[in-house]
Amino acid sequence: MPGxxxxxxxxxxxxxxxxxxxxxxIASPADIRAVVDDVQLAxxxxxxxxxxxxxxxxxxxxxxxxxxDVADARSAVDTLSGxxxxxxxxxxxxxxxxxxxxxxxxxxxxxxxxxxxxxxxxAS
Length: 124
What we know:
There is one protein chain. The longest helix is centred in the middle third of the chain and has 26 residues, at 29-54. This protein is an all-alpha fold. The protein is elongated, with a radius of gyration of 24 Å. It has one domain (31-123). It has helices spanning 2-18, 29-54, 57-65, 70-77, 82-97, 103-123.
């Protein structure tokens, strides 16, 4: 046991001296704030992309054809974050880049609306 205590004390001292002095940070507060600002801006941009896609007339026609409520989907956009929001934005980007009326547009649009409505149901 004394050997263990000596080893543990040596490891503790080595770790203590290896850490930065008090007041020093690995990342500065300004760097951390910049990263947080970038994430918030990206999420706001993604939300706006999804909302603008849901406002499209062709999207609303397809939603009505499948019995989906676009208002519920728009409400669900506010509950999305992280990977969910990024996935919805990726679908919205695909829809905005594709030609309207194609089969891939209908499939992507259906998936987007189903994801948003499921999120709305889960969030409520």
